[in-house]
Structure formats: C-alpha cells, structure tokens
Amino acid sequence: KQEVTQIPAALSVPEGENLVLNCSFTDSAIYNLQWFRQDPGKGLTSLLLIQSSQREQTSGRLNASLDKSSGRSTLYIAASQPGDSATYLCAVRPRETSGSRLTFGEGTQLTVNP
Amino acid sequence: DAGITQSPRHKVTETGTPVTLRCHQTENHRYMYWYRQDPGHGLRLIHYSYGVKDTDKGEVSDGYSVSRSKTEDFLLTLESATSSQTSVYFCAISDLGQPQHFGDGTRLSIL
Predict the structure, then answer these.
(1) Residue A98 pLDDT greater than 80, yes or no
(2) Which chain B residues are within 8 Å of A23, Cβ to Cβ?
(3) Nearest CA in chain B to A91
(4) What mean pLDDT value characterizes chain B?
(5) Res A35 pLDDT > 90
(6) A4, A91 in Cβ contact below 8 A?
(7) Which of B4, B42, B72, B85 sits CB 3.0–4.6 Å from B103 for a disulfide?
(8) Which residue does chain A place closest to B33, by CA atoms?
(9) Secondary element (H or E) of residue A23
(10) Are the beta carbons of B23 and B2 closer than 8 angstroms?
C-alpha cells in the first residue's frame, strides 16, 4: 500500500527566506506526483504536477523536483511571502489506467512571518 | 474554482438520517472523486467515477454510495449517517493524466 509522508508537519520562517518542503513515498511505481496548497476553510489548489518521466517542474517562485527511484519530491519556494502561508500537500498517483486515484500526505503547515 | 460547485457547504444532521452531498462541474471532465479530510488521516478517497454510471470504490467506501447519471453531477450518499462520518468532504475533477481540481468542500457534522 502506498504511503506518503511529509516532513516537517509545520514550518515557520521569516519573510524573504528560501525554503524546501519534503515529500516521500514508499512505492516508486507512480504515474505522477502533484503538489497542492490549501488555505484554511478552503479546498485544494493545484500548484504543480510532475509526470513520472520528469525531474522537475517550475511555476513562478515554485520549483518541484521528483526523484522516483528514491521515492522523494521536494517543493522549493523562493523568496517566501506572508501570502504563501498555507498547508502544502503532496499526492501521488499510482501507475494504473483506471481513474486517477491519489494518495495524499498529511501536509506541511507553512507560516511566513512579516 | 475550476467550475466545481459543492452543495450544501455546511450541514448538521442527526445519527441515522440519510444525507446526500452534490458535486456539480461545468468543465466536462471525465473523472470525478469524493474525498474526506480528517485530522490525523489527511485526505482519503471515498469513491470515484470514470464516466456516466461508471464508479468504483476508494480507500474508505464503507457506509457511502455514489451515483453519476450525468457527466456534470456526482452525488455522495450516506444512507444512515454515523458520528464517525463527521468530516469535511471534498469533490475533485480531472481528465486522464491531468491535475485534479478541487471544490471548496462540505463541512458535515453528525450529532
């Protein structure tokens, strides 16, 4: 059974700092990996999706990497801002053709202090 | 967000009553999903659909049923609600290989 772990569970940093969030998964047979952001009381917003054949994806100040063989992904946030404060979740999709079932980690709660 | 509407947004009901949650999409995506989110467990898949009238069970499907009679609507039913089903329920949509997009959730309390 696929298990996804995110460390740390919570992180507090001063504004402007570069930071890395970690995600690890136990089964490397994945189709893709997705990073989400969740604000309090809201749904999930998709940030980046990395296909299993890719090593990284970038969007603005966000960069996500994938090392499938070691079962790891990182989300790098450059020049953090208070508006980045949220819970960040990673999720993996197994390598199967029926549906796009995702297994989620429990998230990292990020606080960026002004 | 991404043309997904969940209703109701909040509901309080009593143990043993039936409850139906609705997810409506305007994106014409093939796949629709129901998740629940609980502290200490994260997001877990309840059921999903890969087309009209085509559904399958997820990780925590006991006590839940779903129906999809139209591409745009995916219903989640608790036939006889229990306190353990108190949770926040999220609907998501996607096309194959594409990112999943989520609704804003339904907060369900069962007393």
Answers:
(1) no
(2) none
(3) B43
(4) 94
(5) yes
(6) yes
(7) B4
(8) A101
(9) strand A19-25
(10) no
**β-sheet bridge partners, residue B89:** B36, B106
Q: Which of A32, A42, A104 sits opposite B43 (nearest CB)?
A: A104
Cβ contact A107–B42 (<8 Å)? yes
**What's the pLDDT at A94?**
82
Could you read off the pLDDT of B65-95 as tens digits, one per residue? Answer: 999 999 999 999 999 999 999 999 999 999 8
Residue with the bigger pLDDT between B37 and A1: it is: B37
pLDDT at B1 over 60: no
Residues 6+ apart with CB under 8 A from A56: A50, A63, A64, A65, A66
Which DSSP helix (H) or strand (E) runs through A113?
strand A108-113
* Contact flag B102-A44 (C-beta cutoff 8 Å): yes
Q: How far is B18 from chain A (nearest CA, A)?
A: 24
Q: What Cα–Cα distance (Å) separates residue A21 from each residue in A5, A57, A66, B63?
A: 11, 15, 12, 35
Position B97 scores a pLDDT of: 74
Mean per-residue pLDDT, B55-59: 91
| Interchain CB distance below 8 Å, B31 and A100 | yes
